[in-house]
Design brief:
Distance between the termini: 41 Å
Order of helices and strands: HHHHHHHH
Radius of gyration: 21 Å
Number of strands: 0
Largest sheet: none
Shape: extended
Amino acid sequence: MSVSLWMIPVIILLITAYGHFKGVKIYDCFTDGAQNGLKIVFEIIPFLLAMMVAINIFKTSGAMDLFIDIFSSVLNKLNVPEPVIPLLFLRPLSGSGSLSYVNRLIQEYGPDSFIGNLASTIQGSTETTFYIVTLYFGAVGIKKYRYAVIVGIIADIAGFFAAVFICNLLFL
């Protein structure tokens, strides 16, 4: 039997035993944490909903397709395959959306293909900037986030092109 099957129960048991040994009221702490977690969820829902609506508007309006058409000629010269280009726009918006897109690329082209390697590297080299700004900044009440968005987008673009550069060196 694998050790990994027992790790989570053992860790929970160790934490519970340590808390009991230190005199912590474990159940009270657990219920307080659950209550605070629910408060945070209810505070975050409006920001999450606004972000999801904005992402769907961006996709269904054709704006993403327009951006892909504009940048595809330049990116093709840098050896970025056309199926990977949507990640440049999708990854800063949605982690789950970009992950499902990468999954589709890997299923279609294979995990060891250049497209699969590049998409996976981009996924790991970039961040969900708008998700972070919308959800986390909104949840804690940060109102002045203009520079954070600019720096986040610059970092995403740098991560995208660094992934392209490294994958061109390693996989071609």
